[in-house]
Every structure is written in structure tokens, then in C-alpha cells.
Amino acid sequence: MNLKLDIRKDYDRVEWLFLRSVLGKHGFPCSFVDFIMLCVSSVSYYFVISVCQFGSIILQRGLQRDPLSPYLFKLCKESLSSLFREATASGRVPGVSVCHGAPNISHLLFADDTMVFCPVNLPRVQHVCHILDTYKLALSQEINLHKSSAVFSRYTASKLQQRLAELLGIQLENRDDIYLGLLAIAYRSKCAFFAALKDRIWRGIQGWHEKTLSQAGKAILIQVVIQAIPSYAMSCLGFRKLCYGNFNCWQLTFSGKIGNNVEFIG
Could you give the C-alpha distances from 149 to 29, 49, 199, in angstroms and in order? Predict the structure, then answer.
């Protein structure tokens, strides 16, 4: 089972007392911790209405969108990793492995996204809920249930999927959902997996045909847009020759067959 969790307004809900405790646990000197907390807690806001300034709002929690905020938030989010590492070591949330002999993975953190991996087992899923509740109470975070989802193996019974999804309070993942430009659920057929990507590129090309563009303008659109759309997918997954050939064919068709200088770069 894979849980994709979305944290609602994660930066704005960080408890300052918890942040101070986290900085201390990471071994930062007291003077440095005091300085950081002074920077965080000394922010105030004013309202400007009809050129007049009103009020002064002193915040009680949250991290501002300054260059330091992402690093402080990552330190706070490390506490969630610690909870999962402890649960994995004790066997309560063993995680999953991609193949025999591979290490078990219980969670992944990428940017603001959190993914949790767990065997389909009621007691273990309940412990995952306990870990998330502990994290929410400590950091005052709130999980956006409408944007969070669960993915199960195709071998998991539908009734069990629904039961665990109701326990977690989240919905089942739609197989057509997009994550980072790719389908959230991979298919065995690479061509079927890249169908959404191909459709996106083809729709863009069809829209450009209606515009009067010079050969130089077409070349720039190809290099900046068409070749940029699949770049992330190509860095993660291997392209089939058929998909690669389709992309090149579309580019040459759109460019008016201006020569071999316009070529899809893999």
C-alpha cells in the first residue's frame, strides 16, 4: 500500500516550541537557537486600507516565506522520518521492498509531498495512523484528506481497499491522476504509460498550427516547449523507440521539415 499525503498550509502551522525543541535535538548551540527563534517570532504584519496603515498582528506560529524557512521546515519534518525509522526498526511498520533482497522503504519525502509504504495489514495501517496523529499533534500539521490518496496492489481485494481507505479517511488513487507530469500509477506497457505525455505534446502542436510562425519561431517552440515536456520522464524512465520516433516525427511535421537541425534530444 502506498499513501500519498498532502499537508495543508504546512509552513503556516509550524509550532515555535516544537521548532525550538527540534533545533536543540539536532545539537545547535543555545545562542544559535535563540537567534533563529528571534528571527522567526519577531515578524509582525500591518493592514493597509486606502493608503492608511492599521493594526499590528504578532504571529504565534508558522514559518515565513524567507530563504531560511524551507530548511527549518525540513528539520521539523525530519521528526516524521524518525518516527517511521523507529517503527521500521521495531517491525511495526516494516515498509515494502521493490524486489527480493532490496531494503525495505517505509516512507519518502519529496519537496512538500510525503509518501508512506506499508503492507496491507490492519494493525500496521493503524500504527501508521498513530504515527501521523503524533506528528500532527506535535507540529500542528493538518493532512488535506481531499488531496491525499491511497494506492493498493491489484491483488488486494476491493473490500479491503475500501475498508483501509475509510480507516485512513482518504480516497483511492485514480489511475489517471498525474504526478510531476507522469501518471501516478505505472503500467507494464511503456507505450500506454506515455500515452498521456504524447497527447499533451500533440495537443500543443495542433494549437500552434493555427498560428502564423516563422521558421525561427517554430524552432524556438520546439526547443523550449516540446523538448522540455518529456525531459523529466526521460530522466526517470527509458523511452521506447516507437515513442521516441513519434516525438521526432511530430517535431519535423510542425517545423515544416526544416532539416536535420531540429531533432529530439534524449
Answer: 40, 41, 25
Neighbours of 170 (CB within 10 A): 21
Grid cell, residue 128, equals 501508521
Q: Which residue has the higher pLDDT, 95 or 242?
A: 95
For residue range 33-74, list pLDDT tens digits in order: 898 888 877 777 777 887 787 777 766 666 666 677 778 888
- In 3D space, the residue among 139, 118, 162 whose CA is nearest the CA of residue 129 turns out to be 118
For strand 171-172 and strand 149-151, is the pairing parallel, antiparallel, or unpaired?
A: parallel
Distance CA 40, CA 83 (A): 26
240-249 long-range CB contacts below 8 Å, 24 or more apart? 240/190, 240/191, 240/194, 242/191, 243/190, 243/191, 243/194, 243/198, 246/198, 247/198, 247/201
Cell of 38: 528571534
